[in-house]
């Protein structure tokens, strides 16, 4: 049953207020009436109405002033202005100030109901729009993060899970590709069936076909009994093929046939079996490049690449790194019987500025390491792993400075001519430090000032950029 809308009626005529109230069905509206602006102010905050019926001429003031005050509030009620002294100019003014509609007295039940129904529809639409805009989740499945990049991932998983389409997850190592696949499964109608994951890069090629399709007894040396493969076990559920680009071309051919027909044969068997599985695959490589280089079948790629899901690296996820670090710190502190409760400001800065090339997996290991090796209630900067505090994985470049060359008094003409040529060449070549400075500043501009994202595009640690910016600032000083 739809919840009754709260209606505040501001009408100084008690008889008219009763008439208007009688026009409205009790199951649709919860009505509170007041006869002055003073009582309206006192009631509005406590009642929190969805709709306000506002008379203009009131004993203690003009209703237009009340309209202006309500419109200045966050998420104001829908206001319908009513008056017996209406003019077109007043109606226009009220609408311009934010009123939803304008009623001229006298009006009948039908007119009031239509106006209120329209206001109610507008309220519902506005709520839906706000819900969509504010639907920023702190996590999804086993993911932790509320960055803009992850909100996009969550929405894509929502859409993918609602269908039976194949998902193709791309992301660097450690970004959580299997978590994304599990989230797709858990939010789909197949959630009560099996989720089976195969790492195509971890299983030797000669065993991969058996792992995927199963085998019969005697199919090969060591096959002492029949064995069900992942395809059979995942029947009705989801089959996740991780690192799909590692699969051999011969097996890719068989996988393509399986995807197209839903049928397969166990290794060593002539019997055709049919299953119903939903495919999700993932890779940390560039699949387009793999196709171009001939390592991945083009027809298989287009069969699998139905709904792409890109998992952003940790360096593109803003302050998600701190949310995840705090979660890991809590988990490992409890596991190791430690009492860590948070990070010092300097430690947080180091965590935020480091590029985390190993992504969430590296962050998880770093948090476990510092909990095991240290004690205290707060993580200090010195407790963090060396690569985080020193930027050990940074890509450094030499800094060259232009040096003015003056002719030597005792030099020969040819020597001086050689040095003059050197100066001329020097004027045509930009010093490496300046080239680097221009590249970094350009990347920061492209990323709208987000240094973490700029660092990711330049493939350096954010701390490298911060240090160099500081160095250039000192040079200017």
Automatic annotation (TrEMBL):
Keywords: ATP-binding, DNA-binding, Nucleotide-binding, Phosphoprotein, Transcription, Transcription regulation, Two-component regulatory system. InterPro entries: AAA+_ATPase (IPR003593), AAA_lid_NorR (IPR058031), CheY-like_superfamily (IPR011006), Homeodomain-like_sf (IPR009057), HTH_Fis (IPR002197), P-loop_NTPase (IPR027417), Sig_transdc_resp-reg_receiver (IPR001789), Sigma_54_int (IPR002078). Residues 6-120 form the Response regulatory domain. Residues 143-372 form the Sigma-54 factor interaction domain. The modification 4-aspartylphosphate is found at residue 55. The keyword Magnesium does not apply. Gene3D superfamilies: 1.10.8.60, 3.40.50.2300, Homeodomain-like, P-loop containing nucleotide triphosphate hydrolases. One of its GO terms (molecular function) is sequence-specific DNA binding. GO terms for biological process: phosphorelay signal transduction system; regulation of DNA-templated transcription. Pfam families: AAA_lid_14 (PF25601), HTH_8 (PF02954), Response_reg (PF00072), Sigma54_activat (PF00158). CDD domains: AAA. It comes from the Bacteria. This is Sigma-54-dependent Fis family transcriptional regulator. The lineage of its organism: Bacteria, Pseudomonadati, Pseudomonadota, Gammaproteobacteria, Cellvibrionales.
């Amino acid at each position: 049953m739809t919840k009754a809308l709260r209606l505040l009626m501001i009408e100084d005529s008690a008889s008219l207020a009763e008439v208007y109230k009688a026009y409205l069905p009790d199951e649709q509206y919860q009505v509170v009436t007041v006869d002055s602006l003073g009582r309206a102010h006192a009631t509005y905050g406590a009642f929190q109405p969805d709709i306000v019926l506002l008379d203009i001429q009131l004993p203690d003031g003009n209703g237009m002033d009340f309209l202006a005050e309500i419109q200045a509030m966050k998420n104001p009620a829908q206001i319908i202005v009513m008056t017996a002294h209406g003019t077109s100019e007043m109606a226009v003014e009220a609408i311009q100030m934010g009123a939803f509609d304008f009623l001229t007295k006298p009006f009948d039940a039908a007119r009031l109901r239509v106006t209120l129904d329209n206001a109610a529809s507008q309220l519902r639409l506005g709520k839906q729009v706000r819900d969509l805009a504010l639907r920023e989740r702190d996590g999804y499945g086993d993911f932790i993060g509320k960055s803009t990049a992850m909100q996009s991932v969550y929405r894509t998983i929502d859409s993918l899970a609602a269908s039976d389409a194949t998902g193709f997850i791309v992301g660097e190592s450690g970004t959580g590709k299997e978590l994304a696949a599990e989230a797709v499964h858990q939010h789909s109608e197949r959630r009560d069936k099996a989720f089976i994951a195969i790492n195509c890069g971890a299983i030797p090629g000669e065993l991969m076909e058996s792992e995927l399709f199963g085998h019969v007894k005697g199919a090969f040396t060591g096959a002492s009994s029949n064995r069900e493969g992942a395809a059979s076990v995942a029947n009705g559920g989801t089959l996740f093929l991780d690192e799909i680009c590692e699969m051999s071309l011969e097996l890719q051919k068989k996988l393509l046939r399986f995807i197209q027909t839903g049928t397969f044969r166990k290794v060593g068997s002539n019997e055709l079996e049919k299953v119903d599985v939903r495919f999700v695959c993932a890779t940390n490589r560039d699949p387009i490049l793999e196709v171009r280089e001939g390592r991945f079948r083009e027809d298989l790629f287009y069969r699998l690449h139905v709904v792409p899901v890109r998992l952003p690296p940790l360096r593109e996820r803003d302050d998600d790194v701190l949310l995840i670090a705090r979660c890991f710190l809590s988990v490992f502190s409890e596991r190791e019987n430690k009492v860590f409760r948070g990070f010092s400001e300097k430690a947080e800065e180091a965590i935020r500025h480091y590029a985390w090339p190993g992504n969430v997996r590296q962050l998880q290991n770093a948090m476990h390491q510092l909990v095991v090796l240290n004690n205290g209630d707060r993580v200090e900067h010195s407790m963090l792993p060396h690569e985080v505090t020193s930027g050990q994985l940074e890509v450094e470049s030499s800094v060259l400075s232009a040096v003015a060359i003056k002719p030597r008094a005792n030099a020969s003409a040819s020597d001086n001519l050689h040095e003059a040529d050197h100066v001329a060449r020097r004027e045509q070549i930009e010093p490496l430090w300046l080239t680097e400075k221009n590249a970094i500043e350009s990347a920061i501009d492209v990323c709208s000032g987000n240094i973490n994202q700029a660092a990711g595009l330049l493939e350096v640690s954010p701390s490298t950029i911060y240090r160099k910016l500081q160095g250039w600032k000192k040079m200017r000083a």
